[in-house]
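User: Sequence recovery, please. Input:
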């Protein structure tokens, strides 16, 4: 059996921790320029890196049954969680009407729709030479910003805007990544991320929504020919910060490595905690700079909890439409309880 690559499991777990942390930080971006700069720095790499890693693992898209597998893995959970989140928001926000809109993804569910579309788009783009395909994807992404109708509807804006990162990941190989793991690259990467943070801090008026990829130019600024070059600049920033971040990912197995296999579970479920946090009084306990260290700890705990075996066994029927992990976990519980019963019976006989 081929050994699993620990690098990618480590990367996915750490990135998911940043996703949760970034979503928690959103509540405080108007309270502190330091927090706002940190928020934008995280957003410059966390989803682009996730998308790049997803592209790296899409190399088997041409295999028989791959698209059917992706459809079941992405579209079915999307439909299920679109309904679940609609119900949750109905009660959480005390809305007056209940409306399930399958064409406008609820919050973070955009990723499922876009990931499905990226895999389908590979059918055409994979036939092009890497530089031609990547260049064309960038050109399309820059031009769609001028089309106001391309926004959150079916996650079209993010699908086109982030596709270049997915395609870059698809064309990457392990030899490319090995070049990141040198002392010189580590020092350069640290300096780059530090400079990016300082830059965001000094230029606090930079709209973070440029990093979300969900808006046409008209919703970010007064549209002009310069708009596409601004987006191109943010692309350059993301590519640099993504590879800078990846250079720090450990390649050995650690206590958190296995949790990296469950990032889809964390991604789909953490929204319940984030939305509740934003609507509760809990956010009042994290109002100063020192307490944001605790907020980072809370992000880690949420990520670990949702990566756990018990959550996986409970959520698998909804997320994967399977019960294999549920059965496996139930068997472990029975094995744990059985000796206790036998021991009790033995002591009774004595």
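Assistant: Recovered sequence (350 residues):
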């Amino acid at each position: 059996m081929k050994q699993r690559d620990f690098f990618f499991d480590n990367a996915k777990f750490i990135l998911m921790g940043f996703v949760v942390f970034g979503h928690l930080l959103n509540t405080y971006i108007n309270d502190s320029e330091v927090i706002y700069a940190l928020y934008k720095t995280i957003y410059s790499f966390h989803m682009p890196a996730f998308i790049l890693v997803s592209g790296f693992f899409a190399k088997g898209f041409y295999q028989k049954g791959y698209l059917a597998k992706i459809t079941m893995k992405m579209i079915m959970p999307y439909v299920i969680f679109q309904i679940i989140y609609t119900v949750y928001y109905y009660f959480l926000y005390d809305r007056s009407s209940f409306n399930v809109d399958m064409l406008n993804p609820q919050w973070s569910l955009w990723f499922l729709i876009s990931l499905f579309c990226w895999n389908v788009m590979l059918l055409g783009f994979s036939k092009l030479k890497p530089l031609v395909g990547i260049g064309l994807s960038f050109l399309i992404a820059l031009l769609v910003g001028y089309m106001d109708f391309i926004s959150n509807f079916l996650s079209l804006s993010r699908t086109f805007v982030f596709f270049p990162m997915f395609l870059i990941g698809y064309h990457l190989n392990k030899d490319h990544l090995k070049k990141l793991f040198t002392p010189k690259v580590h020092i350069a990467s640290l300096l780059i991320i530090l400079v990016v943070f300082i830059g965001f801090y000094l230029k606090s008026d930079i709209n973070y929504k440029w990093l979300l990829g969900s808006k046409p130019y008209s919703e970010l600024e007064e549209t002009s020919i310069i708009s596409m070059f601004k987006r191109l600049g943010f692309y350059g920033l993301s590519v640099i910060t993504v590879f800078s971040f990846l250079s720090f990912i450990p390649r050995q197995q650690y206590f958190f490595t296995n949790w990296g296999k469950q990032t889809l579970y964390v991604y789909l479920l953490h929204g319940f905690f984030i939305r509740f946090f934003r609507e509760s009084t809990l956010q009042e306990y994290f109002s100063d700079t020192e307490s944001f260290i605790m907020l980072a700890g809370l992000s880690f705990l949420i990520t670990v909890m949702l990566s756990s075996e018990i959550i996986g066994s409970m959520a698998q029927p909804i997320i994967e439409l399977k019960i294999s992990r549920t059965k496996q976990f139930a068997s472990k519980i029975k094995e744990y309880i059985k000796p206790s019963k036998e021991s009790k019976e033995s002591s009774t006989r004595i």
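The mean pLDDT is 91.
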